[in-house]
What does this fold into?
Amino acid sequence: MEDLEAVNLAADWSDISQGLRKDLGHQLHSQWIRPIQLGGFCEDTGTLDLYLPTEFSANWVQDRFADRLSLAWKIARSEVRNVRISVHPGRRKLPDLSLGGDGHRAANDADSSMIAVAAGTIGEQGFTSSVGLDPSLTFAAFVTGESNVLACNAAQRMAANEEPQFSPLYLKAATGQGKTHLLHAIGHAYLSSHPRARIFYCSAERFMVEFVQALKQNQMIEFKARLRSFDLLLVDDIQFIIGKASAQEELLYTIDALLAEGKRLVFAADRAPQALDGVEPRLLSRLSMGLVADIAPADIELRRSILESKLTRFAPLSVPEDVIDFLARTITRNVRELVGGLNKLVAYAQLTGQEVSLQLAEEQLTDILSANRRRITIDEIQRTVCQFYRIDRAEMSSKRRARAVVRPRQVAMYLSKVLTPRSYPEIGRKFGGRDHSTVIHAVRLIEDLRQRDADMDGDVRSLLRQLES
It folds into this structure.
């Protein structure tokens, strides 16, 4: 009976959630309603528990959506008389920012959303510092390419000894493209050159939680003094600095105070400052007054370089070149998924004693691969190749043997084999009914030319970028 009740509650919640999505819109629903988890239902009191992952999100939903949620549940189930919104009881509570004393705190764990403070004490061991930064996220471990070189260079300049030409630095990138890595790297590099520096690192959501707590505890004077005593301010996921106008105002004043003293500020978000929702115009102007550095999605060359940079960790286990190329070609959504896929593949091979192979990768990474795979058609390949080489689309199926036509046709056949699951005979039929042996010859020829001819390799790489973007 309990299992049946849980199923019925889940079904009702699915209907309620879909209705709220239509009312609130995709963005608000995705950010605040979708993370809600169903708790237990007490028949005696008619109370249904709804859980959220953080105190901040629970307070936000309680303030803005509690009445709507309560009404929706009462309509769906007459026995629900009260809806209680709280933090999931099984979630580890984050420690509060210490507002008193000398500001020293222990190193943080792997939770990147927590606040980390660098403060120092002079003692027999000399000056010590603790910031809770991930020791693996350094500039040395950050692989650069065309898509992220500007952001990386700007981040290094921000951490250098000389005064930066721009502040604040605003890093804009989609999830998993490296903005958090650069935030940690700035912290490490700045501490290396300024060992007595005081660093404040947190997520925007955590900043607002700490602000509200200080407000409730009448500790705003201490909070402001501490916040403005830092030499380097690092704030991640600034897109969550919404709501509470007083918290935004305090961040605004903090930015002004730190900039006036020549301090350094770095913010990171998944969108441009002007695209932030619910943020006051004055704060938007401060966030965009320095340098806004984009990190574009990694292209195939950068993805391959990132994978190759990780291979030394797995020695003596070897990862074949065709596996690296396969992962770089197919896992395109973000770098975090790319590295995660490699780690999963290698871990499986080590635990089972198997060799890493293309077949093993296809078998064990089906979820990641299916989520990333964009279906590219042969028609799309032919159209792109014809535009690239400036030939008529009809030449893909014609019988002409002129070199200016044959080579682009062979490139299109090669790309069709690389980027689609089509067989040689299927590809041949799309190119004017050609025999499968003709397609095999074209694929092998282009593979050979890529090894010997830099121009041909450059053409193919350019076409791959266009087709996979």
